[in-house]
Amino acid sequence: xxxxxxxxxxxxxxxxxxxxxxxxxxxxxxxxxxxxxxxxxxxxxxxxxxxxxxxxxxxxxxxxxxxxxxxxxxxxxxxxxxxxxxxxxxxxxxxxxxxxxxxxxxxxxxxxxxxxxxxxxxxxxxxxxxxxxxxxxxxxxxxxxxxxxxxxxxxxxxxxxxxxxxxxxxxxxxxxxxxxxxxxxxxxxxxxxxxxxxxxxxxxxxxxxxxxxxxxxxxxxxxxxxxxxxxxxxxxxxxxxxxxxxxxxxxxxxxxxxxxxxxxxxxxxxxxxxxxxxxxxxxxxxxxxxxxxxxxxxxxxxxxxxxxxxxxxxxxxxxxxxxxxxxxxxxxxxxxxxxxxxxxxxxxxxxxxxxxxxxxxxxxxxxxxxxxxxxxxxxxxxxxxxxxxxxxxxxxxxxxxxxxxxxxxxxxxxxxxxxxxxxxxxxxxxx
Length: 431
Hints:
By secondary structure, this protein is α+β, with helices and mostly antiparallel strands. Helix content is 34%, strand content 22%. The chain contains 12 helices and 25 strands. The chain has helices at 22-25, 36-39, 70-76, 122-135, 153-158, 166-207, 231-234, 278-282, 334-343, 345-351, 362-366, 375-414, and strands at residues 5-8, 11-14, 18-21, 26-30, 45-48, 53-54, 57-58, 64-66, 83-86, 94-96, 105-106, 110-115, 160-163, 214-217, 220-223, 227-230, 235-239, 256-259, 268-269, 274-276, 294-297, 308-311, 316-317, 321-326, 369-372. The protein has a 5-stranded mixed beta sheet. Residues 142-146 and 426-431 have low confidence and may be disordered.
């Protein structure tokens, strides 16, 4: 029998799902007010902040400490299973405390929720908050006297919450939990593969593959037989340009890919967000670079500057991108140079530091050191690293697929578009 759907203040839901204010279902409590004095007290204890609470999990890798007196210890000590909800930053972001630390507390930027009786499961509530705040912006949170979004306790308590029967809550949380754990496992695989690549880059570019002695260079040790020179010895550099934005003929219905620095991110570039026209190419400093050209971001905030990519298509770039074009592929492999530049990312970023030189330029790139083995060893190094890149790309695609599945299931389960008894796996999930 299909349950009838009825209109509620939070959408059409099964009639059997009662809707009640959060205050009738949960006890709520804000954490301790942070103070500088307490942070340098006599016996500081670990406490959670907004940044420790991620969607669906708690990160204790960056934990801070402050003093709690005996009364505060009893009041603010977390129990495994407590649901923590962000008051600000990203209001409504929630996760369940899993007891990762023997003793832990929380500050005022977080709400702690504990069920009043047996009508609600914290696991279900955790996913409902993810749906209503992250997916739907169902409640809309903003302070009456501030433009900064936040979720004060009085507003939290008044939120209407659906209350499915307990068995259904358990099964919904169980199904979503299976997918979330798969996502977390895939994230660990991505991290492990990335760490392995970082280790291999260091080993390959300092010791090579032949087990030979090392020699010191201006950028550290390299194998004895490798030739040391400059990038400018083997490649030329060019920059691109930007057609006038106010001329529609340069942009409208453009078909020529145009790369921005934000799209250079250690990958083969197969498409771009923006395209220019033939008129735009002819009437600007933009140049059409061939497939296989290396690109480096010369400008950019944060981590962008110094990143490299390689064109998988013919494309133009803006003036903030440096195109690095090898004079002879038979001597130096473009893919070997790509990995060399990836390994020396931090060294490259130093080129752009200083009071008068915030960005990189073509001359600095041409003057950057390059150590090369013979072509056969270059190809072997590229084979090792590219195979690892393939695994990393596969791991990331699996993560993206699982994340999309989770969001789809979350939406459909919380809006009753599908019910857990319609899912084959639901019977196998321990609610």
